Amino acid sequence: MMNELPIIETPSPNFDERSLPVTMLVLHYTGMPDAASAINWLANPESKVSAHYVVTEDGQIIRMVDEAKRAWHAGRSHWRGVDDVNSASIGIEIVNPGHEWGYRPFPETQMSSLIPLVHDIVQRHRITRGNIVGHSDIAPARKQDPGELFPWGQLARLRLALPRPTKNLMDPHWTDGGFMLALERFGYDIADPQAAVVAFQRRFRPELIDGVICGECRAILLALLLPKPRGDE
């Protein structure tokens, strides 16, 4: 499959050796004014950041680090017991100005390239849907990307991400402490509880990101913890 995707090679020197097998895929937005400045930054040895792939708004796929190597995209992060997320993941930077430079929807041309790339990576590495995450999921206190406009539902319908549960939702009436324990069990770092709730909402209830634990949030999280999440598939 990879041979069928037109890929531009733009190597970054910012990588080292993995210490864990690949079990995750992390999606980011570049958060810079344009694609060129983002790619230049990711290729700059002084930046100490990189990603395996960049997907531009017009659908170009740029490979910057070989998948066998540990790219430096996740920073200080945690997901489902893993603290060295860089070692355990493939990182894709999706060109978008982000919240700082004029956040906007991800164009269809971009998604049309991103989706087959994600599908290919997930198939080859046998990455489960629960380990296809956004940067804000693994670093809730620091990051907002790929953000509330990212079409997770589009990926979920192709079984390339967990769906947002929508059917037979029931509020378990957990205390706030109970909700946080459930959020930690699901995978989030809850060291900053408010940030963890906001990150969860950004991903699974993006129309209202207020950091308030409510019945809807509890019901969505309960459904996600069940063996088969039921959503908009």
Automatic annotation (TrEMBL):
Residue spans crossing the bilayer: none
GO biological process: cell wall organization; peptidoglycan catabolic process; peptidoglycan turnover
The entry's keywords: Cell wall biogenesis/degradation, Hydrolase
Keyword Hydrolase recorded: yes
Catalytic activity annotation: Hydrolyzes the link between N-acetylmuramoyl residues and L-amino acid residues in certain cell-wall glycopeptides
GO MF entry, a single one: N-acetylmuramoyl-L-alanine amidase activity
Pfam family, one: Amidase_2
Highest taxon, organism lineage: Bacteria
Class in the EC hierarchy, top level: hydrolase
InterPro entries given in the database record: Amidase/PGRP_sf, Amidase_domain, NAMLAA_amidase_2, PGBD-like_sf, PGBDSf
EC number(s) on file: 3.5.1.28
Claim: Hydrolase is one of the keywords in the record: yes
Residues in N-acetylmuramoyl-L-alanine amidase domain copies: 10-147
Cellular component annotations (GO), alphabetically ordered: outer membrane
Entry's family note: Belongs to the N-acetylmuramoyl-L-alanine amidase 2 family.
Name of this chain's protein: N-acetylmuramoyl-L-alanine amidase
Organism of derivation: Sphingobium xenophagum
